Design the sequence.
């Protein structure tokens, strides 16, 4: 039994329709992949530099969230107590790090907002794809920390003592085997 001409033309039309749909999906995939590459490259280049209100300190944080640069004006040492200077530097770095995270999340969030949940479209594909990361908006900055005198004092942890290892036991060396006939490399094994 063969397929009639009418059935054949119906199948060909359906195949053409599916090919067009797959081609459109492939084009959309390529477009999104390029957007993702561009966003990842832009996110890798994020760097935030903030200056303190008094202009005595500047901190720059790179895309990895690590402090990349710290500048302190020479006059800061005479104008600010060391503990206050340390707190202000820590706050400046924290704010810069938060801003780096916010900028990176904003670059990547635009890509993930319009992506449908694959499991709702094709449940079997959801198992094959990695989960799309969620980039929440950063939390608002906390209020200033309490001065050191108002913080609870925690005693330092005791230094752990390394356990003593027993001395290694030396075994007497065995004399070399003079008879090599018992070697495991025997020609008849090959």
Sequence:
């Amino acid at each position: 039994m063969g397929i009639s001409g009418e059935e054949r033309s119906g199948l060909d039309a359906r195949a053409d329709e599916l090919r067009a749909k797959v081609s459109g999906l492939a084009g959309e995939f390529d477009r999104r992949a390029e957007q993702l590459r561009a966003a990842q490259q832009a996110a890798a280049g994020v760097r935030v530099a903030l200056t303190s209100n008094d202009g005595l300190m500047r901190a720059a944080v790179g895309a990895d969230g690590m402090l990349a640069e710290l500048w302190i004006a020479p006059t800061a040492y005479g104008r600010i107590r060391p503990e206050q200077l340390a707190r202000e530097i820590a706050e400046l770095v924290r704010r810069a790090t938060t801003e780096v995270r916010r900028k990176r999340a904003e670059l990547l969030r635009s890509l993930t907002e319009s992506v449908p949940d694959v499991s709702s479209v094709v449940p079997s594909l959801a198992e094959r794809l990695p989960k799309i990361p969620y980039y929440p908006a950063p939390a608002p900055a906390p209020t200033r920390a309490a001065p050191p005198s108002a913080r609870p004092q925690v005693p330092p942890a005791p230094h752990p003592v390394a356990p003593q290892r027993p001395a290694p036991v030396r075994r007497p060396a065995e004399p070399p085997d003079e008879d090599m006939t018992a070697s495991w490399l025997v020609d008849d094994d090959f």
The first strand starts at residue 47 and ends at 51. The beta strands are 47-51, 57-62, 67-72. The radius of gyration is 33 Å.
